[in-house]
Specification:
mainly alpha; two-stranded antiparallel ribbon; globular
Length: 235
């Protein structure tokens, strides 16, 4: 057994740092970006830890009696609890300046999720359901081609991160809108790629539907709130 979850987490933090560094000279102040980096690390650790515990409990494994399995087993991370833990951690660190913090982390969070999915290359878990497409990949020792579903997700998420960074550079988005957009995109990508993932009972689709709806609602609320504020109100 290998420490593959740690490897995937390491792959995830690289794009987070890159995006925050890029935005530091454009949409986020340099000092703010350094603070956001610290917050993002705390959010990643909390998200992976809580998500891993939830996955273990869902598989009937007691974390208290098998603490080593938190880092070693390839069972993965429960995305719903991980997302809630990461957002809650970032919100706690950003209390008092909630939207500047969450909005400042939005694009880098999408990039980090892209890195997490690309971490399948470390964990050996990139492939999904059978496919006859030209880019299908076969597992070692098998002639059956399969969708590289985790790579699909990584590409979609990194593309969304680039578009969000570009949007923040081009327009002044209302507070909360980048956060809502990022949440909707992250959940939407998981939702549309879920049918391509190998699963006996289906994935936690309701988590993704709820996340997508919450993201859309947050973005709509942000734009409606901005439209009803006096022109002189910049809060």
């Amino acid at each position: 057994m290998e420490f593959t979850l740690l490897g995937a987490a390491f792959v995830a933090v690289i794009p987070i740092h890159f995006v925050l560094s890029w935005e530091a000279k454009r949409t986020n102040a340099a000092m703010c970006a350094r603070n956001l980096w610290d917050i993002s690390l705390g959010a990643v650790v909390a998200g992976v830890f809580v998500g891993r515990l939830a996955a273990m409990l869902g598989d009937g494994v007691n974390p208290l009696t098998h603490p080593g399995d938190i880092l070693i087993i390839r069972g993965g991370v429960a995305t719903g609890p991980a997302t809630i833990a990461a957002i809650a951690t970032a919100a706690w660190f950003g209390r008092g300046v909630l939207w500047p913090v969450l909005d400042g982390l939005a694009a880098s969070a999408l990039a980090g999720l892209a890195g997490w999915h690309a971490g399948c290359l470390v964990r050996g878990t990139c492939l999904g359901t059978p496919s006859g497409l030209p880019w299908a990949v076969s597992q070692e020792g098998s002639a059956v081609g399969r969708h590289p579903v985790e790579i699909y997700a990584a590409v979609l998420l990194i593309a969304a991160a680039v578009v969000l960074v570009w949007s923040r550079m081009k327009w002044t988005l209302p507070p909360g809108a980048p956060t809502g957009i990022a949440l909707a995109v992250a959940a939407g990508v998981r939702l549309i790629t879920e049918p391509l993932r190998p699963s006996l009972g289906g994935g936690p689709v309701w988590w993704y539907v709820a996340g997508f709806a919450a993201g859309i609602a947050t973005a709509i609320w942000a734009w409606r709130r901005a439209g009803t504020q006096p022109a002189s109100d910049t809060s």
